[in-house]
Amino acid sequence: MKIAFFQFSILMVFIISCAKTLRQVPKKLIAPVRPVTDTYHGIEIIDNYRYMENIKSDDVQDWIRSQASYASEVLNSLDQKDYFYNRLEEVDKGKPFNIYRIWRMKNGSVFYIKRKSDENQGKLYYRDSWLGLEKLLLDPEAMSIGKEQHYSLEFYRPSPEGNYVVYGIAEGGSEETTIHVLDMHTGQETGDIIDRIETAYNIPQWLNEDGFFYCRRQLLAPGTAETEIYKNTTTLYHRLGNEPENDHVVFGRGISSSVTMLDVDFPSINVDDAGEYIIGKIKHGDSGEITIYTVRREQIFDNDVPWKFVCDVADSVVSYTWFDEHIYLFSAKNSPRYKVVRTPLKNPDFNTAEVVFPPSELVYRYASRTKDRLYFSALDGGYNRIIEYDPATGNSQQLPLPTTESAYIFSSSHHLIDIYISSNSWTHAGKDQVYSHLTGKLEELNIEPPGEFDNPGWITSEMVLVKSHDGVNVPLSLIYRKGLKLDGKNPTLLSGYGSYGSVYGVGYYTSRLPWLEKGGIYAIAHVRGGGEFGKEWHLAGRMKNKPNTWEDFIACAEYLIREKYTSQAYLGGQGGSAGGITIGRAITERPDLFQAAIINVGDLDMLRIETTTNGVPNIKEFGTVKDKDGFKGLLAMSSLHHVKDGVDYPAVLLTHGINDPRVAPWTSAKMTARLQAATSGIRPILFRVDFGAGHGIGSTKSQRFDQMADQMAFLLWQFDL
Fold this sequence. Notes:
By secondary structure, the chain is of the alpha+beta class.
């Protein structure tokens, strides 16, 4: 439906003048219904908004822009919008700068990304030591000047001797990444430019100073279905100075007689300059289980690379590392919370692998390497612990870090002995520390200054167990002001995800302070489908078990109301991406529980997900409509298909970046249209669209803060606060 610009402008004047009282979306914005009927395994499904999938059509573009303009005008008129944005800026400026993505070299030099508090994006820097002078290498903000969309630095990696840096640049949050190479001696680009780079599961790996391995998507002819984009990816070797189209394919479908691979698999390799072996990994879409091969370094360019098989999907390996002559595997096979085993790289055999850490209450996740140690990361009651392991003796110990904080390794190197550790809680930033087994001590690491808001002192947290619909206890983390009154009047935001075995880890974020300062509660439901309790917790919220995810979320909402932390009038729910299933199905199942909801880049039309760019890789997580049981599962988790006419739905703010490659923006458009047409109430359904963003990856600070401010102001508006 097209709306003349001058008519829309008049409408906006009216909206701004009465933003406090106007709730219902104007009828002029309601999308037309153009039904299409599909039959799945004998069941007819009517899709009233199929035409929106042609998102580039004039009609759909006009409607989306009208919705975006309407949402922007309403949100920008809210009393609290400017306050929240300004406060986010203030707390961000409490720390002069942040340093992250540190890469330490064997000669003591260091690369890192640094964002100053007055900058929109992080920039890449170099020092010959931490005491040396800082040198700016890459500035995405400068690259973006004069461009319609901003550039973001997706990754970087120095060559083994530090002579070059390979890095990836994408535009407008699209994740459409192009490789460039910087010559450290001249400070100029080498001219090596490669497009169609696949970065979701691997970044370039240097073989030596002459070249690197990288993953690339296939070249498609114009008009090819978008479902083909992520198929037949390959891993290639690029020698500096050569034309990319002549690069040597080393790992991919049909490349080696010793490897079996499907067109939907993602092949990648890992290599370092100290090891004799190269690891080949196959990611099967978005499934956690991986297939691994290994080959001697000098055989990687053989005509038929003699890869040796290590493990397959049935072995339920989700992570690995290697040290000297062994590869270490994190496996859920007969181990619901994972075990760690190792097998020789020369003749790997999963079935006879030595058990390093047997199954326990700990959830083993991944490991970091140093010159003579491995450091394992493991969840313990929701908190991340670090376990030091000596491969030579088999001895291990847990590092003496605070039990009420989560600790994470943010820098390690197979050339160095020490590790950098960051520990924090829900309520305060922890210390950045350096640890070496030679001293057995943790020492403070002073690479960035403390922040003014690192330890507010007035925040507390707790974790409670909430009994879900089937009696299973679900962890619920709560963050709020000390002295909170349980009177049912506290503005509360309940967030949840619950897919891919992802863990909602303990962490402190100053961006939550503005909400907490207003008396708000920030609640996190650790629902099934996540990985807080290992593989069994993931599988309990996957495919046919997916209803447990939103039922757990609903149980947590009921608990918050029952225990008078809040009440329906002050409760908002939030989920993003696959978490869109969680919040989408929660409000369609129990619209009476929530006053408002926020759905960020949400998976909302699960029956049509396979038609999208990222749909086929997600079959392993959600299922396929081609299978009868798979169709039933997808229908159950598809929020769009559970919206009913005449129901008083909560106020809903749907957000999406138009350049999103992971979740098609039309999924949010369809859900917006359906909710606006169906609701019987006066609470608004708003569609906030960022035309310079994607899935959120690569967004600038101002983009993130603007969206956060919109969300917090929207909630308080709907709570009448």
